[in-house]
């Protein structure tokens, strides 16, 4: 079943830079798509258009059969995880995860349940009262994941989430994120420049170059061509 559909989506920035040429593809429900390509090829712009953080110049973006071009990011049923974690430094881990839910008017009991479930999944239970500055890089990234998970989104968007971590931790987090995504069955779009992440996490890889799709296929198709 198609979950996300891009129909001739393009982006021209106000300064005239054409970051994404008209691009079309479908993402199946539960699929893990990895976007790769050289710096400046348009990965981040494409992801940010899906997130509603960047206006779509032309084309239609549909999520669950509904055109969302003009729909507020908060109503798209998506969660985004960033490279720099974007945690609130003055808030505890618990409140970092609860914040968005409180804003949406969720009740205290329900919030508590959601936060504690996410904390259990992410091995954060004993860190709930700490602040981000008192956590390791991997733990901070888990909090960022937790903040995404508590909202039970139907779509995860990841913008190079592991690139600030050292190689060992990156390997570990890659396995954790993939396992969690499988378990939750959440459709995911993941931007990276790490070929190992692309090969091991993707159901399908999309290679962008100069704002166009250069290749699209399974890891085997993309990386083992004659
Ligand atoms: P990637 O994520 O693959 O590195 P980006 O999507 O960030 O690529 O950038 C694609 C192109 O758009 C680049 O040429 C970049 O310089 C340009 N670009 C990105 N953001 C902006 C912006 N806010 N204004 C103008 N040009 C931008
Ligand atoms: P602050 O970061 O301002 O000190 P608090 O830690 O006092 O905030 O928490 C604010 C709210 O979140 C309170 O309603 C509190 O009950 C709830 N809360 C915080 N941590 C937990 C926790 N570990 N379990 C349950 N509720 C919590």
Topology summary:
Elements: E1 2-12, E2 18-28, E3 32-36, H1 43-51, E4 58-63, E5 66-67, E6 78-82, H2 93-103, H3 108-121, H4 137-149, E7 155-159, H5 167-184, E8 187-191, H6 195-201, E9 204-209, E10 212-217, H7 219-223
Parallel strand pairs: 3-8, 3-9, 6-7, 7-8
Antiparallel strand pairs: 1-2, 1-4, 4-5, 9-10
Helix pairs in contact: 2-3, 2-4, 4-5
The chain binds adenosine-5'-diphosphate (2 copies).
Membrane topology: Peripheral membrane protein
Keywords: ATP-binding, Cell inner membrane, Cell membrane, Membrane, Nucleotide-binding, Sugar transport, Translocase, Transport
Domain ABC transporter: 4-226
Structural account:
The protein is an alpha/beta fold. Helix content is 34%, strand content 27%. The chain is built from seven helices and ten strands. The strands form two sheets. The protein has a six-stranded mixed β-sheet with strand order 6-7-8-3-9-10, sandwiched between helices. It has a four-stranded antiparallel β-sheet with strand order 2-1-4-5, with helices on one face. It is globular. The two termini are 31 Å apart. 38% of the residues are buried. Bound molecules: adenosine-5'-diphosphate (2 copies). The site of one adenosine-5'-diphosphate has 12 residues, from helix 1. The site of one adenosine-5'-diphosphate has 6 residues, from helix 2.
